[in-house]
Amino acid sequence: MMQRIGTQLILSVYDLIGHLSCHHLTALDLQVAEGALAKPVLWDPLLQVLRERGLKHEKGFIDNLKTQGLDATVIDGIDVNDDSVGATMDAMRSGQQIVVQAALRDGRWIGRADVLRRVERTSDLGPWSYEIIDSKLSQETKGGAVL
Question: Using one digit for the tens of pLDDT, what is the confidence trace for 87-137?
Fold first, then answer.
């Protein structure tokens, strides 16, 4: 979710998807980021069930990668902060085969990748780079997932 850190407005793909769906949502999110509105508290049991099913699906996906002989490094937490981004970069610089829940930041944009898989293609990291693997539970790709 959109947040203000110092003078910079930090955005995620969810902010972009929300804006494409509803410009008014962006205005409300900006007011929350500025502290003019309180963040809404929402508890939806269906969302909780979907979240749990998604986590179970992701664990099964990672277990499958491990059965293929791939070593997985998991980045703990859900936030994208200096610690999680640093842990992700350390894993990538050391050439880990799989990075799960990679925390990524580029300027004002932040996000978490389900899985990064090492590929043997030269990059600033060395003779390897990473491709993103999305481990979604859904059977069809939605526009927001592509973003």
Answer: 999 999 999 999 999 999 999 999 999 899 999 999 999 999 999 987 765
DSSP 126: B
Q: Which helix (H) or strand (E) holds 102?
A: strand 98-106
The amino acid that residue 16 corresponds to is L
Report d(CA 23, CA 62) in Å as an integer.
37
Query: pTM for the complete prediction?
Result: 0.76
| 103 vs 84: CA distance, rounded Å | 6
Q: What is the Cα–Cα distance from 134 to 96, expressed in whole angstroms? A: 18
Give Cβ neighbours of residue 91 (< 8 Å, ≥ 6 apart). 73, 75, 99, 102
Does position 20 have pLDDT exceeding 80, yes or no?
yes
Task: Give the pair of three-digit tokens for residue 71.
Answer: 């070593």
Nearest CA to 133 out of 110, 116, 111 is that of 116
Which pLDDT does position 93 carry in this prediction?
97
Say how far apart CA 131 and CA 115 lie, in whole Å: 8
Helix (H) or strand (E) holding 146: helix 143-146
Q: For residue 42, report the phi and psi dihedrals to the nearest 5 degrees.
A: -135, 130
